[in-house]
Amino acid sequence: MTTSQEFDDWSATYDDDVQDESGFPFMGYANALNQVVQHSGAQTSMSVLDLGVGSGNLAARFVMQGCNVFGVDFSPEMIAQASAKLPFLEIVQADVTQPLPEPLNRYFDRIVSGYMFHEFPLETKVAVLKRLADEHLAPDGHIIIADIAFETQADLDAARLRWADRWDEEDFWVIERDLPALQKVALAANWVRISDCAGVMVISPLIRSDGTIPLMG
Ligand SMILES: C[S@@+](CC[C@H](N)C(=O)[O-])C[C@H]1O[C@@H](n2cnc3c(N)ncnc32)[C@H](O)[C@@H]1O
What we know:
By secondary structure, the chain is an alpha/beta fold. It has 7 helices and 8 strands. Strands 1, 2, 3, 4, 5, 6, 7 and 8 form an 8-stranded mixed beta sheet that branches. Helix 1 (about 5-15) runs parallel beside helix 4 (about 75-85) and helix 2 crosses helix 3 (about 55-65). The longest helix is centred in the middle third of the chain and has 15 residues, at about 120-135. The termini are far apart. S-adenosylmethionine (SAM) binds next to helix 1 and helix 3.
């Protein structure tokens, strides 16, 4: 896992780095963020929490939709970048692997994230997503995540070879392994492939916080 200090150090050049979509890690970045908005079904006045808000690129898209956007990030310098772009955004400095502090201890219509969950091993991904779904997702809410993702372990292994000169090993999503792990804790998940190294995951509770089970199909 990367430290908040490392993200502080990256903050000044982050927005330049995401412009390079020629290969790993940001191939498909802008489209991935756009697809998070698309798959969220976001509407005006919906409450949206952006996990690992970073320099604010995903949050800005939800602001454009008229949503009531909140952010959380553990890097003060990343938060400063986002605040410069979106001064009215409520951003809390916190570690998302821990229970959310006030004023984020509430329900959200949508919880979203861009390029953060690959920081966490699978057990942490599952635990964080389960807690958020149980404690912070409004009825009919969804979690939508853009991140570095591969359909199979073989696809990940091929990408590691293809981009050996720029590869940085982290806990990238492997869809064939990770979506069943989410299902085991009653989180239904689907994904859309965005590029050779990006995907968007849509995650919904199988049992909703109001106790009902949504009809499938
Ligand atoms: C690669 S940046 C992505 C920023 C933005 N979401 C985007 O899509 O461009 C990852 C962000 O997640 C934040 N982050 C990583 N681990 C975190 C944690 N455990 N708690 C809170 N924020 C975290 C970092 O500080 C950084 O701002």
